[in-house]
Here is the input.
Amino acid sequence: MVSPDSNPEVSVKGQLNLDVPAGQVLYLIRRPDPKTKDQEGNPGNNRFYPATPVTPTSAGCWEDANRPVGYPGVKGIGQTHMLVLVGRDQAAQFPADRKSGDWDGCSHDQWRAINTIDVMSFYISTA
Here is the structure.
């Protein structure tokens, strides 16, 4: 679900059949689509943004509710959402990275340097 304002919030939920291995964390990652543009005509930057850890219920259900997509005027940018497995140490580092004043997600090279296992991905449009 996408809210209708210029800085929309996105709520996602799903169900998967996965036992998260010991020492791993299931993490929701967002990646703005460079083929889409915001309200000012700026394209998505295609960087990787760790959003939040996800803990499936015993039935495999998970959700992340009402997360702002980005900035005022971001409406129009599509995003690939990914669920990945990362080590606990890396998962603990993501919030510290987000709080850093100059951090703007991970480039492709930075992301490749992180040991991840892709679980699933899906696309959400804010247009």
Summary: The CA atoms of residues 30 and 49 lie 5 Å apart. The helical segments are 88-99, 108-113. The chain has two helices and six strands. The beta strands are 9-15, 24-32, 49-53, 61-68, 79-87, 116-124.
